[in-house]
Amino acid sequence: MPYYRSVGEVPHKRHTQFRRPDGGLYSEELMGQEGFSSDSSLLYHRHPPTAIASAEVYETPPLARSANHPLKPRHLRTHKLDAGPADAVLGRRPLLANDDVRIGYVVADRSSPLYRDAVGDECLYVEEGRVIVETSFGALEAGPGDYVIIPTSVVHRIVPQDGPARLLTIEATGHIGPPKRYLSVRGQFLEHAPFCERDLRAPGTPLLVDETDVEVLVKHRAGWTKHVYAQHPFDVVGWDGCLYPWAFSIHDFEPITGRVHQPPPVHQTFEGPNFVICSFVPRKVDYHPLAIPVPYNHHNVDSDEMIFYTGGNYEARRGSGIEQGSISLHPSGFTHGPQPGAVERALGIEAFDELAVMVDTFRPLDLCDAAVAVEDTAYAWTWNR
C-alpha cells in the first residue's frame, strides 16, 4: 500500500517489549512482502499466531481448464450460473484462468469459512448486495461498486449482509496494487492519478474474537490445507504499517477524457502480475467536433481483454446481447470493436452512462467449465450483420 496507517495499540518502538494488562508479552508478527524488502505491517496478537493444533489436506474440486479453441470472442452470462446456497470462498465458480490470474463469480448468501490465500492477492468486486470482510486487521464494509483488495495470506472471511451478494473474484499469483505510474518514488499518489489516498478505506479498529480450536482454510501452491489454530486469529490488539486490506469504490474513480477517444490505459485502476484491472465509469466523452465517442476497432496483440458489465448502458456493445452481469472475452489474435451501427449512433453523444470492470491479461485466458455452461454461443457472429 502507498501509505502508512496505525490502528489500535502499538508500542512506541518496534521489536520491543509490549505487555498485556496481565504482564505477559503480546506476540509480535511481521507480515511483509518480497523477503523483508517491500511493504509490511507489524501486528500484535494476544496469543502466538504460530500455534496450530492440526493440519490436514483439504480436498477441493479440480479446476478444469480448456483453451479458447477455436479462437473466437466469447460472451458469458454470469446471472445464468446456478445461484444455489453458497459462500464467497468455496462457492466461487471459476470462469477464466491462466497461470497468473483466476477470474470467478459467486452469489453468496452465507458467511464463508476463515480463509487465507497464500498464493497471491485477491480483488473482490461487489456487483450487488453488501458484505463485511472480517480480517485479522479489522473489518471492512463493502457495497455495490466497491473493490476490496486482500493481500496475500491475510486471514479473512466474507459475510453477506441482509441478503445475497454478487461478487466478481480476481485471484492473483502475486500482488495487486495501484499502477506504479500513479505513485511517487515514495509511494504517494501523484496529481495525475484518477484516485488518491482519500478515496481508500482500511479497517479502523481491531476485531477481537475469543475462540479456541478454530479452522482456517489455506490455499497454497501445492493445494489446500485445513489448519486448526489453538486461538482465533482475530486477536490483534493493534497494527501499523503499509500492508493491509483496503477498499476503493469504482464511483470514486475520476475518468480521464480528451478531445478524441482515449485508449484503455486511461481507465487503469490496479496492476497485478501480468494483468491489469480497469474501471469504465460514467463520464463526459470526446469533445472534438468530429470525434467518434465509441472505441475504434482495435487488436491488442499482447493481451486477452475481459470486460464485466456491471451497470448502465455500454454503447459500443448495443445489439450484441450484452446485459447486466455479462462478461465478454476478446482474445489476442482477434480484432474487435464496436457493434455494427454503434459508430453512427454515438456521433454527437456528450456523455456515457456505463459501468464496467476490465481485466487485460498478458497470457491467454482458458475457459473453465462454468464459463462453457453459460456461454452465449451466438456472440462471435454479432459483427457479421
TrEMBL record:
Domain annotation Homogentisate 1,2-dioxygenase C-terminal: ranges: 275-383
Uppermost EC category: oxidoreductase
Cofactor(s) the protein needs: Fe cation
Keywords for the protein's UniProt record, in alphabetical order: Dioxygenase, Iron, Metal-binding, Oxidoreductase
Homogentisate 1,2-dioxygenase N-terminal domain segment(s): 111-248
Gene Ontology MF: a single term: homogentisate 1,2-dioxygenase activity
Pfam families in UniProt: HgmA_C (PF04209), HgmA_N (PF20510)
Its EC number(s): 1.13.11.5
Family to which the UniProt record says this protein belongs: Belongs to the homogentisate dioxygenase family.
Protein name according to UniProt: Homogentisate 1,2-dioxygenase
Species, as recorded: Paractinoplanes hotanensis
